[in-house]
Amino acid sequence: xxxxxxxxxxxxxxxxxxxxxxxxxxxxxxxxxxxxxxxxxxxxxxxxxxxxxxxxxxxxxxxxxxxxxxxxxxxxxxxxxxxxxxxxxxxxxxxxxxxxxxxxxxxxxxxxxxxxxxxxxxxxxxxxxxxxxxxxxxxxxxxxxxxxxxxxxxxxxxxxxxxxxxxxxxxxxxxxxxxxxxxxxxxxxxxxxxxxxxxxxxxxxxxxxxxxxxxxxxxxxxxxxxxxxxxxxxxxxxxxxxxxxxxxxxxxxxxxxxxxxxxxxxxxxxxxxxxxxxxxxxxxxxxxxxxxxxxxxxxxxxxxxxxxxxxxxxxxxxxxxxxxxxxxxxxxxxxxxxxxxxxxxxxxxxxxxxxxxxxxxxxxxxxxxxxxxxxxxxxxxxxxxxxxxxxxxxxxxxxxxxxxxxxxxxxxxxxxxxxxxxxxxxxxxxxxxxxxxxxxxxxxxxxxxxxxxxxxxxxxxxxxxxxxxxxxxxxxxxxxxxxxxxxxxxxxxxxxxxxxxxxxxxxxxxxxxxxxxxxxxx
Length: 522
What we know:
Layout (H helix, E strand, L loop, with lengths): L2 H42 L1 H24 E4 L7 E2 L13 E4 L2 E2 L6 E7 L1 H7 L2 E4 L1 E3 L2 E12 L5 E4 L5 E7 L7 E2 L4 E6 L1 H15 L5 H14 L4 H10 L5 E5 L4 E6 L6 E3 L3 E6 L3 E9 L11 E5 L8 E8 L9 E9 L10 E9 L4 H17 L6 H4 L16 E5 L2 E5 L4 H7 L1 H9 L6 E5 L4 E2 L4 E8 L2 E9 L6 E6 L6 E5 L1 H10 L6 E5 L1
Helix pairs in contact: 4-5, 9-10
C-alpha cells in the first residue's frame, strides 16, 4: 500500500474507534443508572417483596402439608373424595375441605372421636353434664272395667237328692243383701222328710247304739245342706217338717237368683249366687312392651267418672301368663277395696301404676351387682382384685400395667396408672363416689337431649377432655320424662354432651372416622 492510501484509511479507523468508545461509555452509564434504580426500588418496596415471597413459600408448604392432612369431598355426594380441590363430577358443586382421620386405638364401646377447636365448641353451643344417679319412676295408665271379686263368689245349690220343690222364697230379687244364717228359700223333698223321720226314730231308739245312729243320720242331713241348728230344732220339737229352710252360708249380695216359687229343682241346681262387694276387681289390659313395669303386689290408684277427683287404692292381684295374639296385650287384674260399696260392677275405671325404674328386673340385677361391689367399699383397705376398676378411668385394674395404691381420706385406693393420681387427689369426692355404689332407689341416667337414636343403636358423646368427644354406644332403659336410665356404656361421673350432641354427630359424619379413629377438626 502506498503512503497516500495509508494516510486516507487511518482517519477512518480512528473515527470508528471513537464511536465505539462513546457507545461503551453510554452503555456503562446506563447500566449504572439501572443498577441504582433497581437498588432504590428494592429498598422502597422491600416489605411488599418480602410478604410476597413469604406468601409464595407458605402456599407451597401448605399445599404439601394439606395433601397429607386434608381431603376434599362433596357435601351432596359424600362418596366423592379427592386429594385436590375442584368440583364434584356428579353434581358440579365445589368440593368442601375436611381433615383426614388420624388412626389410633379405641376402647370397647367407642364408635368414633371428634376433636373441636374451642371456638367451634362455642359456636355450636355444646354443653356437657355429669352422668348422675336419679330417682326415676315410670307411670303407666290403663283403662279397665270393675267386676266381681270371683274369690268371694258363693253358689248355693240344692243338695237334697232327687227332685225338690221350691215352696217359698225369702230372697225375691237380685241385688238383695243377706247376712250369714239368713233364710233364703224353703224346699219340700220326700227324701228329706224321710231322712228327718229316720233322725227322730234314731233319737228315740232304746238300743245301745242310739247316739251313734243319731249322729250318722245327722251327718247325712248336713251333707244335704241342713244346718246343725236346724237338726237340733227338729230333735227339740220331736217333729219333722215336710220342708226345710235353706240358710245363707255367708254374708253378701245376691248377684244371681235362678229359681221361682213352685219350681222343681234337682240335686246340684244352683239356687242363688252371693258375692262380697266390699272387694272388687278391675280387669284391664296392658301392652306387652309395658308388662315389665307390672308386678303382683304393686300399689295402684284407680279413678272412676262417677267420683271425679277421688282415687281408690288397690294392688296388682294377678297377671295373665299369656299375650292375646290379636291385640298384643296382657290381661291384668287389680284388687280394690270397696268398704262403702260405691264402686259398682260394670263401671269403667282408670288405673295408674307408678313403678320405680330401680325396681324393674334389669335394673334390680344391675343394682345387686353394684351393691355387692359397694359392700367392699365399707372396708378401709381392699385389694386391687376386690376394687376391680380404677375410679378415674373406669378401666379394669391391671389393664394399664401394675395398679398403684394411693391413700385417700384414710382409705387405700387403687388406680390404673400414675397419671390418675393427680386427678384423684384434686377431686376425691367425685371419683370415690363411683366406688360407693348407687343409692337404693336411684339409677344412672342421662338427659334425652344427650342421646342420638339411629333406630339400630343409641349413642352418646362423652367429653374425654375439653374439645374431645368420644362416641359411645349405650344400652338404655325406657324414657322417663326427659331422661333415659342407663344400663350399660356409662359410669357415674363421666360427662356427656347434653346440648349440641347432634352437631358433634354431624361433624363426625362429615369427617367419617372408623371405629378406631379420631376426626380432628380445626
